Amino acid sequence: MQDLVIQPTKSSPEVVFIAADGRLSLRGESYPEHAVKFYEPVLQWISSYLATESAPLQLTMDIVYFNSSSSKILMNLFDMLEDAAADGKDVHVVWRYHEENEIAEECGEEFKEETQFLRFELQSYGDKG
Amino acid sequence: MTQNCITTYPAVLQGLHEFYESLQEEGILFCYSGPTNQGLVEGIGDILRQRMAVEEAGTSEVHGLFAIFIEQMQNILHYSAETTPQTTDQYFDEMRHGVVVVGREREAMRRFFVICGNYIEKSKGQVLAEKINAMRSMNKDELKALYKEMRRQDPTTEDSKGAGLGFLEMARKASCPLDYCIANVSEELSFFSVKAVR
After folding, report:
1. pLDDT at residue B57, rounded to an integer
2. CB nearest A11 (choices: B38, B60, B173)
3. Residues linked to residue B100 through DSSP beta bridges, in sequence order
4. Mean pLDDT (whole number) for B116-124
5. What residues form DSSP beta bridges with B195?
6. Which helix (H) or strand (E) holds A66?
7. How would you class B44 by CB atoms within 10 Å of its CB: exposed for 0-12, middle for 13-18, buried for 19 or more?
8. What is the pLDDT of chain A when averaged over all its residues?
9. A91 in helix, strand or coil?
10. How many CB atoms lie within 10 A of CB B57?
């Protein structure tokens, strides 16, 4: 399977999905004009990874801000991972946020509340990352 | 005040200084009126963050107001009924028009606010009003529960390009209920404005 790498813009996150070790990361801001269009390849990649690879999957999220349309799509994404975890796949989500970004922390908690089978970990960091 | 004006359109030019001063008196940090695109949203978004840093706003205040601002602007971007006609060369995307005002209260709590306005089809006014009225009577927990419920709903069948979550997101980030106004303009159009205070 090919890796998926998308460069960040001011309003869309950096996407780095490495197929070989199942490490995925989304980093940056997320308020693109057309969120559905932006996330289409992202969801597709994860869906085919889950269908074809049996190795564990670790998704690291470090989103400074995301808008309501992105939020809806991220919910779909976590649902997809949750289903896989319920089927016995090893899925680990690390939600990273700056210690002063209370909103990002709260958003992480709200996604965590929606999941049950996957490991959802909140991780704060300071200015040094 | 003495003025020395050389102009063929005195009304606009002479009034501009007065207009500028009156914005400052109202605590307006900046405003924009006209066609919008994603680049504008990103650009003004930068200015908003920078301007709030100058105002020594706290991190959570900046993040909260930014979230409100983006939802407000993307409402104009996606739903305004007033558009710039498409050019024939297809180089430019269609642009929707609206007005955005970002300010800070002059008195007491010195809260930041974002006001946005744009034309809407008259028939949509009632739906918007009902949506916001319902939110106005909810507390934060109720807003959160509704947000979670809506987030899981399938994309709305209407002409919704976003998630239909925008107003809820604004209501959750606001420190008091959203204010709005729907003014009848013509047979087909109303002007819809909404204010969110962080």
Report:
1. 84
2. B38
3. B32, B116
4. 94
5. B115, B179
6. strand A57-66
7. buried
8. 95
9. strand
10. 19
